[in-house]
Amino acid sequence: MIRDVLERVYRFLVNSTTKEKVETQTVSIEEYNKEKKELEELQAKAQSLKKVNERIKEENKSIITNIEKLQSEIRIEKIANILSALSFKTDEERQKLLQTLVNSDLSIDFIRETYEPIKTNKKKQYETKLPQKSIPEKRTDSNFIR
To answer: Which end of the chain is more exposed for a tag (fewer CB within 10 A), N or C?
Structure first.
């Protein structure tokens, strides 16, 4: 329908501006005004749809920004959770490593596979295979009292 209206208006404009001898088509003023009104309505509708489209694009950008922010926060939480089992000399070292890992392109699985063995190795470092002495109990024997 839109195409038909546009074609008729186009033909009318071409016929009225062409210098060559062209078969002229007579259109009544009522029909011309009707076609012109339809064209204006369609142009207004197209303009309205363009505005709606722009608003939707802006909303999509906002949603994408929010999703990226949430994904970043989740990544930070996961990496912080992995690093929480490790001991650091200072909190500054922990934050520096956390920020480095968050900004890297390393996957969470790779980070977990890399840092979880360190956690278990640290625990093993404090374990010993030597027999452990228990703390002697206090004796109340009078032999030891002077």
So the answer is: C
